[in-house]
Amino acid sequence: MPNPSRTCLRVAALAGALAAVPTLAHAAGYDELSGTRDGQAVSERNHHIEMTFERDYARLKIRRTVHNAGHHHDEAVYRTALPYSGVATGLRTLGRHRGRDRWFAGELLEAKLASDRYFALTGMGVDEPRDPALLAWEQISAVTLRVFPIAPGADKTLEYTVDMPAVWDGGRWVIELESLGVQHNVAQLRLSAANRRDQLLVDGTPPPSGEFALDHALRIELVPWQVAPISLELAAVPTGAGRTIVHWRVGLAAEVSSVPARARVVVGLDLSRSLDPNEVEAQRHAALAYLEHFRAKAAEVTVLGFDHELHMLTPGFVPADEAIELLEAAPLERGNGSDLGLALTAADLLLRSTPDGHPRRMLLFTDFRLGSRLSPRDYEAIAANSGAVVHLASVVVNDEPWIARDDLHPWATVAANTGGVVWTAGAPEVGAAGQRAESIGTFEVLARPLSVDFPAVVGLGPAPRQLPETLPEGAGHETSLLLDRYVNEIMFTGLLWNTPIEVEARSNIALGDRWAALTFGTELMWGLEADEQLHVAQRGGVVSPMTSYLANESGVRPPQAIAPKNLGLIGKGGCGGTRSGRGSQSGVVFRGRLDRQAWLNAHANAAWLRCGGAGHSAELVLEATYDEIVDLRLTTPSGADAKRDACVLEYLWGLWLPSDDFVEERLDWHVPLRPS
What we know:
Elements: H1 11-19, E1 32-35, E2 42-53, E3 57-68, E4 74-81, E5 87-97, E6 100-105, E7 107-110, H2 111-124, E8 133-139, E9 142-150, E10 155-165, E11 167-169, E12 172-177, E13 181-182, E14 185-186, E15 188-193, E16 199-202, E17 212-213, E18 218-223, E19 230-238, E20 244-252, E21 264-270, H3 277-291, E22 300-306, E23 310-312, E24 318-319, H4 320-329, H5 340-351, E25 360-365, H6 380-385, E26 389-397, E27 402-405, H7 412-416, E28 422-427, H8 436-442, E29 451-458, E30 465-466, E31 470-472, E32 476-483, E33 489-496, E34 499-506, H9 509-518, H10 530-540, E35 547-551, H11 596-610, E36 618-625, E37 628-635, H12 642-653, E38 667-673
Parallel strand pairs: 2-15, 21-22, 21-25, 25-26, 26-28
Antiparallel strand pairs: 1-4, 2-3, 3-10, 4-9, 5-6, 5-10, 7-35, 8-9, 8-35, 11-12, 12-18, 13-14, 15-17, 16-18, 19-20, 20-32, 22-23, 22-24, 27-28, 29-30, 29-31, 29-33, 33-34, 36-37, 36-38
Helix pairs in contact: 3-8, 9-10, 11-12
Domain VIT: 28-164
Protein name: VIT domain-containing protein
Signal peptide: 1-27
């Protein structure tokens, strides 16, 4: 026999709970779970998370099973925090359909409508109460999850989906995931990469193959197996009110460039007397660190010194490892003069013999204390016509190696016209112990570009949007904006050394859909008006202040209008139902929990009164095969009204019979339509 307590929670208690959800308050960082009738009787049996890491975001399917240890049907209420910047994008509930377990997907509705329907489906209205679940907004990165009813001693399983953005950092996608779960029952996490070639790391090591406890904060990384040197993406989401949410992101690969293979390299050291011996040694130290990057690249290297004349330190071009040995042993005698022009000219002549297809590199160290007759303008053409990338570097003695661009130097144009740079640097003397490895890393920037300098994004407004002065390889930068116009295309610009780069991106529909959702995990959402929030949330399929997810078993649809309150509480097990179940033939023995006759009486009479039947009586015969209405016959002894009758029939043809309760192969139901 149905238990009357199943649907007879007081209307005021449930309505109040739906109307006023308190601010999320986690004890010791845990989610809150309670029962509406008996707060201590409802507990969580298990909590499983399947996280699929896509490139640039992750999707979490969070499955939770609750248990009711009480003596009455109860409602379970979760107040749960989402992962940082996460948004809820789906809900489903596990129920029964024709004797089998089945998942029922939720529908995104306007928040008030979802709340009203949830209230109706719990048995407090005319709808057949069919285990609805409601996923509603609480605040950024926090939601309320409700499900009703949970029978005494029974379990209920729900699953909701959370999307969260990843951050590009160190040439990989990164998500910081906090511990999740209720107290004494932390979540069990299972990880997978959407692209099997990508590598997953948890706190720097491969994750377990199965589930593991999410009982502490984790750094989860996705290392892509292949990625463009510079990637740019643009999402543009119209708000429906003439404004656009724009999200753009640029990411640099772990290596934006490589040391060229089979290069011809000329290295020149300033041996003038204006340099102290330890400054000359600092040049040698920097040059050796630079050449280390060409050891395994089949490079050919010439090293020379210059004062007022040239001093060949290698016999022409030799392999890089041999050049390193010769430079380490070479006596560096200083002399008068510092003819940088002579060194540039000599390097140009040496490089003219470079075979076609072999890159050319020129690195000349100098203190720039040159004769007054040496003008940078006189050597711009020589450097440009050499076909080499030309770097000029001034090195001072310093315990720790360092290097920086000097784009305001008088000789900067000479280098820039070749794609090279003028550098100022510090280096220890060659004899300083333990400095070689650090210097190799520092002076790698002379062998290949390690950053995009002076980056900017064009297309977001009248002026380019500036980024940090340098964007190092492996780094990313992203911004969300609310603009008064639509943005369809942007361009990322910058310099690799002094070679301009341009990368374009057009707005992407799928990315726009994703950021329509992810916006509700950011403070930008508060810049939207209510109608804009609704428009954007519906596109993103996301829980928001204006939208909620409602899931209930199939075969039940909320009525087109909430029935009058004076119909009472029609549902399973008392509270207004007659449990007569009268039909014209027996069919199969019905042992379900729905008072079917009362349910039909309530729906049909609500339609009769709404369509203008007040003051008149009629008889309705509804023929059903299982849960399908196949025929309707309406008899009106008095007061015939074609418009009214058509209205009633139209409503009833749209009625869905609960599939688990209307189980006869064929049955006629007789429904009296009353005048009031």
